[in-house]
Amino acid sequence: MDISGPAKDNKPPYENAADVGCGTGISTKVMAPHFKHVLGLDYSATQIAEAQSSIKEPNLSFSVGQAENLHMIPDKSLQLLTVGTAIHYFDCKLFFKEVDRVLLPGGCFAQFGYNSYYHEPRNLAFNPEHPFNPEVLRKLNDVVVEAFETILQQDRYKPALAREDFGVEPPYKETESTSRHEMEMSYPSNIISVVGYLKSLGLWQNYCKENNVESEKLAQQFIEKLRNIMKEVTDKPDEYPLELCTAMYVILSRKPLA
């Protein structure tokens, strides 16, 4: 399927995009070079405040809002609307009605998420005097998997991981999914930012809220576990460069031209 629609003959930057359920804006910022304006929306004022505090791109804006009521977005104004794992907490019937309202004809709806527990720290540093033991990487990965499984244990997103459609029914019939392919995203990282990334997930926030757990206390528990492992290879465990690799899927759905 040609997902680009009428935009394929144009060169970026395109006009307008929105990222719904954006959290701290990690995925929103990725779109900034490709659009004249990108709006990030999330129901959490705390998440939006954090996103706003780190804005460097002049074409980005963030706002508190509900997915089921995108009143701040005009009709037929977006070429792209994205959503991550937050979709599993939406009333999709109402949300998709709004998606259809705000997308231009030929516009694209993209939903992405994780297709496994696969969040693997990898070694980025090269030090001939202190070769990085593969066993250390395995231990790091075990802790990250433990963290991910902890926040998923009661989450409604967990059953979706076992389904080929990831629990999402795209809003338009003309769809293309890349979920059956290994699609990997990677982030330069260290043990502090690995846990910071996990903290930015809605899964983490929901777990802490539903289980009356302090986010920072939980984060420190995992940081200490990672720190103790890293001390096997470096005297600066918090700064040692790693790469966090994540297996992802994306579902694309294009609004009909007419």
From TrEMBL:
Keywords linked to the UniProt accession: Methyltransferase, Transferase
Alphabetized Pfam families for the sequence: Methyltransf_11 (PF08241)
Gene Ontology terms: biological process: methylation
GO molecular function annotation: S-adenosylmethionine-dependent methyltransferase activity
Boundaries of every Methyltransferase type domain copy: 19-109
CDD domains: AdoMet_MTases (cd02440)
Membrane-spanning ranges: none
PANTHER family referenced in this protein's UniProt entry, alphabetically: METHYLTRANSF_11 DOMAIN-CONTAINING PROTEIN, METHYLTRANSFERASE TYPE 11 DOMAIN-CONTAINING PROTEIN
Family: Belongs to the methyltransferase superfamily.
Protein name: Putative methyltransferase
Species the sequence originates in: Stichopus japonicus
